[in-house]
């Protein structure tokens, strides 16, 4: 793969890490204090930072570094994750996402906002409240060691044996740099033996960062054993050759030391012992020469980096660069050091290692997966759809030419039909994805709109793992965004008003997804003021959307908000008031073959319910005949079929009829008359009744002339290939090659209740 492909993989991994980050922060905001949740949040930021460093994304690395430091304070119980703290961290997660998007798409971010959050994060890391005026400086400060580091001075080392390549390893230590004082000498001393494996670096961990964190536990001195370092011609770029022996004086105990290596313990050889328990002469003597080393180089001290780069080196510059990179294995420094030798090759290797590490981590956590271009999946789905059509045609041809019905050809066709169905189900499952990414995106919108309006609102999500076709998910974000903005801006009251009404000052918006009868239902509910029907009605009259003498039910008034150009906002703002929003929502949902309904109770809130198909590719349907036309009725809408009897048919009013079904009455709807296939109503006794359930319309008995059978059909968009036809959802191709129309059950039921099939002809069509 070239660098662009590796970079694209990195950004794909970032999306997953950002989702994990926000999910964990929201759990913590709800009171979850499980250490694993905190660690998952920390790992997400750490992984983004490590990968970003490989590509030189300095802005992203800098912000992630400060964010990571603050999260580390939470992880080590130095900072209590209160609501105020988590509010800052959620905003920081948003900025981290913005920086990632800017790095990927070449855009920019609000520098003032990001710098302000850096100050707040640093203030939290120093134990200050988020609103404290004495916040730290915007730029992250390097963390110094316990004692000031002397200026680096060249030290002559004793000659060491050279290998065939002429490379001479330079042993060094951090002795005297962390010099202890009399107080520290009375503290327990631990000896830590630390030898990384190559997996530690492959997973984005950093040996030198671990040593820096260890220096914060207590006073320490470090020896590095470089005896295993081979010659340059035998060097494995992904290998790990160094071993550290660290002496740590601390009164925090062994657990504090182990916490430093918490995420690396499985990828290294680690041994921690009290000095008094260590065996005398238990390890070979390490040929060491004291060389001062300033760990603050890891915190962005550029002069220190340059000084290290100019320090005396062994005969082979390439070998020195590799050794320096192995010692200070921070990804950003790796790219800088290697650039002096073989810039392009080293950078590519570093990027590949970072990307592969991220991929390996996710693969280990979530099982084996494979990334496939969406166009390939779409092509596969289209081909399977054609396979279904051809299989139906073949079956139809055999049935018409074989009256036996038990031939081997028929048996083979039945097996082919079953296999085709299994293939289609498996292919469709590839496109099925949980709605969680869309729901998580709404969390940020709620926070931003709540801040803009001065409201306190909590978003509760349920059913995030409910799966639906990716096409539906991609087109769901826009209508949901409009609805969320509307609920926060118009629905939920201000904290002062809610308190005066005896409500909790914090409003609640609940977003729920669930499966029902082969469809997905998404509900957006709020506990706000509900719809002010009098205001809605008056606004509609003022805007000439309805006549002043219109007699509307509560449901019809509620549905007026879906009319184009309708808005109840008193003034135009950045959030609303331009008359664009809910009409867009309705059109978007209808374009997906769905419906949206409103249920509102003044003073208690509103519920918006969207009913969407699980897939836009196939459906199981009942093929029926109506006035010589062939239609397909979605099977998920049919409750039962029955043959009407004359005694069960009752007239109601001038043009309405009811059918008696088990001691209850249900309206009888002539599909042919509704769709204008015929001028007069047909005799129900001569046809078949399909008892259907519609969203918001209850049960209706749809009268058709005959049933041809039940089939799985491939959905073909009528709007894309022809134009929108009222009462028709889509089209399909039958086994005999004819085009059949798929009935829009909800629209037909709505028409039976007096609503026009042509939206532009009646205000009631907004329902």
UniProtKB/TrEMBL annotation:
Read off the InterPro entries from this record.
Bact_Chemotaxis_CheA, CheA-like_dim, CheA-like_homodim_sf, CheW-like_dom_sf, CheW-lke_dom, HATPase_C_sf, HATPase_dom, His_kinase_dom
UniProt xrefs under Gene3D superfamilies: Histidine kinase CheA-like, homodimeric domain (1.10.287.560), Histidine kinase-like ATPase, C-terminal domain (3.30.565.10), HPT domain (1.20.120.160), SH3 Domains (2.30.30.40)
Annotated CDD domains: CheA_reg, HATPase_CheA-like, HPT
Q: Which SUPFAM superfamilies match?
A: ATPase domain of HSP90 chaperone/DNA topoisomerase II/histidine kinase, CheW-like, Histidine-containing phosphotransfer domain, HPT domain, Homodimeric domain of signal transducing histidine kinase
Q: Where is the Histidine kinase domain?
A: 365-616
Per the database record, which ranges form the HPt domain?
1-103
User: Which reactions is this enzyme annotated as catalysing?
Assistant: ATP + protein L-histidine = ADP + protein N-phospho-L-histidine
GO MF terms listed in the record are: ATP binding; phosphorelay sensor kinase activity
* Superkingdom assignment: Bacteria
Give the start-end ranges of region Disordered. Answer: 131-164
Q: Which intervals of the chain form a coiled coil?
A: none
Q: Which UniProt keywords apply?
A: ATP-binding, Chemotaxis, Kinase, Nucleotide-binding, Phosphoprotein, Transferase, Two-component regulatory system
- Pfam families in UniProt: CheW, H-kinase_dim, HATPase_c, Hpt
Into which EC class is this enzyme placed? transferase
Q: Name one GO biological process term.
A: chemotaxis
Q: Where is the composition biased (Low complexity)?
A: 134-162
Catalytic activity, EC: 2.7.13.3
Per the record, residues carrying Phosphohistidine are 46
Domain named CheW-like: which ranges? 618-754
What the protein does comes down to:
Involved in the transmission of sensory signals from the chemoreceptors to the flagellar motors. CheA is autophosphorylated; it can transfer its phosphate group to either CheB or CheY.
Question: What name has this protein been given in UniProt?
Answer: Chemotaxis protein CheA
Source organism per entry reads: Rhizobium leucaenae
